[in-house]
Amino acid sequence: MYARLSCLLGLALLMTGCTAASKKKAFHTPIRSLKEAQARAAHFGSVIAVPAFETTPEAIRRLVDRTMATGNAALDEIAGLDRTRLTFEDTVRALDDLNHLVGTAANRLAFIKETSPNPALRQAATEALKTLQEWAVGIEYREDVYQVIRAYADTRPQLFGEDAKLLEETLRDYRRAGLALPREQRDQVEQWRKELARLCTDFDTHITQATKALKFRRADLEGLPDSFLDQPGIKTGPDEYTIQVNVTWQYLMVMENARREEVRRLVETERYRLAREENAELLGRILALRDRIAKALGYAHWADYQIETKMAKTAARALQFLQETSAALQPKFDQEKAEFQALKARDTGDPNAVVHIWDWRYYANQLKKERYNVDAEQLRVYFPYQQVLDGMFRIYQRIFELRFDRIDPPWRWVDDIQLYAVSDAVTGEPLGLFYLDMFPREGKFNHFAQFGLIEGKLLPDGRYQRPTVALVCNFPPPQKDRPSLLSHAEVETLFHEFGHAMHSILTRAKYSRFAGTSVPRDFVEAPSQMLENWVWDKTVLDSFAADYRDPSRKIPEEILRQLKEAKRSSIAHFYRRQFSFGILDLTLHTQIHEGNASETIPLANRILSEVFYPVPEDTTFVTYFGHLTGYDAGYYGYAWADVIAADMATVFEQAPEGYLDVPTGRRLRREIYEPGDSRDVNLSVEKFLGRPVRKEPFLRELGIVTEPASAAAR
Fold first, then answer.
1. Which of 140, 169, 268, 497 is catalytic?
2. DSSP letters spanning 386-406
3. pTM for the predicted model, two decimal places
């Protein structure tokens, strides 16, 4: 998952025009400090920077005031232009410059809101973000600015490439904002959108703040490993163990290992009730308001409005993709369910035992242990966090021809923050920075994501602003007697999230609107999901996976083979669950309106229960479903992107050095990461593949009867 806040009409990036002479004068020594990175960047005509994070509520309020004042002045300047002398630079490009300025401030506020250890700062950032978002919505309704952009477009300028795309999409944004509507209707849409921004910020904040601690005795947690139970914060008394159901890795540990069904049921039920009191009614208001806005703008519903700018183009096409693939999975899903039922019948002595939603993870894990001799917990010894991180760095540095150097951050919001400089291994050009914030703490964003902080962009003075990003994760923290140990699934997550960082940092787009991960939402996950394949390859794993107690011990070939078979043993459950979320998302955004907003929770629970398993009684899964903001009407994009990712992975699979093939990595960097959205992503994918996308690799992975190899992804 990537996290990014786009406030205005766009965001982007570009490569600097280095001369041949400057390229020859490469730097191959390590970058030792931020100052050195900045000096080297200057040699390449670019800029490296870190955010100046605000440290007091007053500073946060000043940031918002300053950003809005600067933005208003810039808009006034555009509005006051002589309409007989309009140029691309002082109209469309000037808006992109403003977007970058405001986006950088908004990114910083969002990051403080999700990561600051100071509750007062988090609250101040939340309120400031609402103010800035409301102001940013209002920018799109500056009639005087719109008329200048429209007047420039009416001159029919001869634009090409990114310039033409920027003008086209800027005009599209104005249309989608309602500038073509009569003034009264347009003003109403503006007010609704401002209200929607506030409500969505509240919804997200309630999710971040939601907590639920359950206390158990040791006997209750039979099946969970001592290495987990003995951790500080888990073991909270002589015979007291506290599980934070809102902390994903703790939740999964229980659901996959707790033998007592009543414990699994309780943990699952409480997970499905998180943020219920705060978000149940709020979500209905959000959905109704979205529907009202979409209809006012001439769309059938919010889903069509959102998907118009994505690869799928319409909600009907996205829903058809989910429903057809979900139906195709039915035989495999039924087969897996029958195997889980047989295990539960054996355990309970009841031949008619029913597999519930709180059972499937546990029996999937038991099946892996018994049939495939795979114990996820025993495999953790092969994946100490630092060893995995270093190994992943070596791999990505190799295939993308990069260099990562750790440098001291000028300011730390917590002690274990790390900062790295990224540079091109061939030319020495600094390309950007990334922070690592990798372990859980109270009040922190509790999932896994990459946050954009400073996006890439060609600046007005001709220099190129290189990106700065942050990985925010929640891996098991290290203990006194052992390092942080990751599961294989968590290693997969790390490779995925760092792929988003590469997508952001390696971008060469010209404008901030098109930079890095600013691609259609149903494509943005594809490059990172493709990189998950790396952790299933024996050669790749052998380069870093070793028992931390005896580094000579690698994961045996047979274990890896069994691990792959074990993954396939429950893959239909994984995807049916994904499809249930996607269908839920699209159903809510096509069927909920003001007249039935009170039916949001019952409708959501019905969809989830029909596509996957019946949800626990008296629960509200959607109140904790953070993808309903940011990925609204877009969750289908994960599976959609998986189709593309599976096909892209075949290029590496067929390369001379497989997943470590440098020429293929270079091609991925040049054709996918660097362009961003500066050209149609369909074209970028076809350039990387050398042909149109095929569904066959994805269907083969799922065990579904495949279509002909020539069938294109739909």
1. 497
2. HHHHHHHHHHHHHHTTEEEEE
3. 0.86
